[in-house]
Known about the structure:
The complex is a heterodimer of chains A (352) and B (338).
Chain A: H1 9-32, H2 35-43, H3 47-79, H4 81-87, H5 90-93, E1 97-98, E2 103-104, H6 107-138, H7 141-156, H8 159-186, H9 201-226, H10 229-237, H11 242-271, H12 274-279, H13 297-304, H14 311-351
Helix pairs in contact in A: 3-14, 4-14, 6-7, 6-9, 6-11, 7-9, 9-11, 10-11, 11-14, 13-14
Chain B: H1 2-18, E1 21-27, H2 32-45, E2 49-55, H3 58-67, E3 72-75, H4 81-91, E4 94-109, E5 118-119, H5 121-129, H6 138-143, E6 155-159, H7 164-176, H8 178-183, E7 196-198, H9 200-210, E8 214-219, H10 220-225, E9 232-234, E10 240-241, H11 245-256, E11 279-287, H12 293-312, H13 324-333
Parallel strand pairs in B: 1-2, 1-3, 5-9, 6-7, 6-8
Antiparallel strand pairs in B: 3-11, 4-8, 4-11, 9-10
Amino acid sequence: MSTPTESDLPRLLRIDTHVATAADNAAVERAELPVVPRIVLHSSPISKWLDWVFRNLLLLCSLSVLGVMGIIFYELTSRSKLSIAKFGLHFFTGQTWDPVAGDFGALPFIYGTLLSSVVALLLAVPLAVGVAIFVTELCPRMLRGVISFTVELLAAIPSVIYGLWGIFVLVPILRLQVQPWLSKYGAWTGLFTGPAYGIGMLAAGIILAIMIVPIIASITREVLVAVPQSQREAVLALGATRWEMVRMAVLRNARAGIMGGIILGLGRAIGETMAVTMLIGNRPEIAKSLFAPGYTMASVIANEFSEATDDLYLSALVEIGLALLIVTVIVNACARLLVWSITRGSSVRSHA
Amino acid sequence: MNRTFKLVLCALILCVAASAQSLNGAGASFPAPIYQKWFTEYSNAHKGVQINYQSLGSGAGIRQVIAGTVDFGASDGPMTDEQLAQAQAAQGKVLHIPTVLGAVVPAYNIPGVKQEIKFTPEVLAGIFLGKINSWDDPSITAANPGVRFPKKEIIVVHRADGSGTTYIFTDYLSKVSPAWNSQVGRGTSVKWPVGLAGKGNEGVAGQVRQIDGSIGYVELIYAVQNNISYGLVKNKSGNYIKATLESVTAAAAAAAANMPADYRVSITDPAGKSAYPIASFTWLLIPQQSRDANKGRVLRDFCNWMLKEGQTEVGALSYAPLPKEVIKKLKVTIVDIH
């Protein structure tokens, strides 16, 4: 862009003044705003009462969310009483799951849920954020609609289809191509050792990644679009390259929102059942290698609940549900903390 | 418009009135296809009777019978004494009525081996315990003269979901192997010493098909309908038997001689010469005294119909029919359903 010439100046100025007037008008309107509705309110005899009803109705709506959460927690706790009484805290550290002997521990399931979700996030976040940046910043207009539509289409596929696709397409590729290569070059990490079944933690992580990409990508895209154009122009005007502009103007402003998208994706990954259970191998064991089979909390509940006959077994399965709830709350709290620390950091920097 | 509405309303009311005798059942998913067929045909033949069946799993079937939320239940495994006592206290006596037979077969995928493999009970238990872990193990080759086994690791595949299939298979292994009985035991889900798990018959069969050197267990019906080749198993009399509808019914006939009065019997590893050893009854759980006399009458009539007409059509869906001896005994038992 060439520097503005003198002939451009009046236009720029006019725009400037125009903007200023609009802002002034807004300020005036803001000052008057409380007065007008008040008059309307007082003109109707039941308006005060309606106002009160409306406020409390909304309060009730918000409280009902807390209420539902409370009921879920109460039900899970009361129905897992047997198991809580028998195993206590040992339930969360025990590694045996033996329905025949009546010995239950949740640690392998907690481990499997967390590990598969972390693998999924590691794969999905760069991909999803990359897609979002491309679509908002670099993509030709023609392609934009097609790409976002396709990405969002991924979210509409039922998870059982993902599972079947995983079994028949992903797993053979993993077993015959990816895993031999990984174990050749990555065995030293300890993450890629053991026999290559195809099925296992890695397959589950990859399928979860594909399932959460659309969530993270579409939220990130919305957030990136919301970054004011002026920020981009300002950074470009300072002589930044395209990438520097994206990094400094777009990503920095949008990171809280992107974190929000990642949290939603994580929530989906933790709770996903069907596709994971079809691919993870369903073995309640803690193994370092991603090739080894694992098990998740959601999967074991779905798999064993309908055929669980004795009371302790059922109660242990319900307690797995309780553990899932607690893990979700903790993970969400950590993520919130992360968002809070990031946004706080940015505001401090902008003031400095 | 108004007229049509009235007509529709009348039709609806008639429908409700006609299906006044509607019964609800829930339970095992393994016999669900034949139950659905039976209940539809029975309803068609008996106007005004409607029987609904939900395949929620055996565990759910037993729980709902105890709680009295259904008119009858269904299960692949018999209720335990403790559960029967609970049901007795809450709903009165509950009868086990065997309906059809199911069997479980070993399916495998050994590269280079096309023949049907023979399994001894010791080999099956050894493989699923993880003690036998290569296909060229002498105990496998000894039972299969003339078959060249590769030196390939055995990968065990089992069911991930709790299921009656797993119960039958582990019940068999518990009977033939003391080591299995003490280390693992029988149940709808057990702590497997080795292996991967697939969800449902299709999950197990899918993994077996894909992984070279794997072995799993699936329902006979599933194997037959999907053309999965499966192995022969040595029975108590020392014969290698291939699972077929006849050999499964033979297993039940062999067990019929010393069948307990309440039909709660495991027929795995039976004595008969031509009996396939990994088989089981599946049961309807029917309260002897229904709270509604009409419902009791329908249930009794249905059981009679099931033993006569019903049994003739189980083969079409690959279920093994009940042996004559058991039908004869059952006819006496169901007179008591009220």
